[in-house]
Hints:
Helices cover about 45% and strands about 15% of the residues. By secondary structure, it is α+β, with helices and mostly antiparallel strands.
Amino acid sequence: xxxxxxxxxxxxxxxxxxxxxxxxxxxxxxxxxxxxxxxxxxxxxxxxxxxxxxxxxxxxxxxxxxxxxxxxxxxxxxxxxxxxxxxxxxxxxxxxxxxxxxxxxxxxxxxxxxxxxxxxxx
Length: 122
């Protein structure tokens, strides 16, 4: 089914973008999970992850939201072991910010609203 392939591709893109963000946190702050540094006032809650100021981050709760220059939004949390947590609602934020056609967005939104569909963790 074509929609399943598109969803899988979007999930892969979501995960790749999370990995990019985590790599940027490591290179900018020396840690995968910057939440502890933020809570100890060692880094700002919001800022940019690149010199061009095209990748904006905002730390919150147990995670972060990042907006790329192309307006795609990645939002995710960290678990107690500093691994990122995949969440279908935060995946929806990514999908909704993408350039995917409305019918794909609607299909994914319907999946998310059912209790039967979950994203498998890493």
